[in-house]
Design brief:
Largest sheet: none
Radius of gyration: 20 Å
Oligomer: single chain
Shape: globular
Strand content: under 5%
Helix content: over 70%
Number of strands: 0
Structural class: mainly alpha
Number of helices: 7
Low-confidence stretches: none
Distance between the termini: 40 Å
Mean pLDDT: 77
């Protein structure tokens, strides 16, 4: 079923905007939920329960604070950002948004470096967590990996 859905929607995708932004046809709440789901997947399922287990139930305030921040982001920022990204030459990334917003056409290597390091750091953390999960479930595997 998933392959059929993928094949049908692959034919509807004609540009990178269609692929990354759904052709801007998604409702704002759907786009926001999609972004938050991909952002929260790792830490919500592994990091938060680990913090609560390690440091006690007082760590539940992490989730409360992040929920409040997420709601404020949706209410106060996302609508205006979505409208202005369309006006700012249909920007698809935050660095492209700032480049178009301030009409600065020089390529800023700092934003690329920050984005690249953030992604590299995130991938490394995910690999470490995977290794820890596997070594806990399969005895003596950590001796083989390290």
């Amino acid at each position: 079923m998933m392959i059929v859905i993928g094949a049908v929607y692959m034919k509807k995708t004609s540009s990178s905007e269609d692929y990354f932004l759904g052709g801007r046809g998604l409702n704002g709440w759907v786009a926001a939920l999609s972004a938050q789901a991909s952002d929260m997947s790792g830490w919500l399922l592994m990091g938060l329960p680990g913090a609560i287990y390690s440091f006690g139930s007082g760590q539940i305030w992490i989730a409360v604070g992040l929920f409040i921040g997420t709601v404020l982001n949706w209410v106060c920022i996302s609508g205006r950002l979505r409208k202005y990204t369309i006006a700012a030459n249909n920007s698809m990334t935050i660095p492209a948004f700032f480049e178009n917003r301030y009409r600065d056409k020089k390529k800023d290597p700092a934003s690329d470096l920050i984005s690249g390091n953030r992604n590299l750091f995130s991938w490394c953390i995910q690999l470490l967590r995977w290794q820890q999960a596997v070594s806990c479930s399969i005895p003596y595997l950590d001796l083989i990996i390290t």
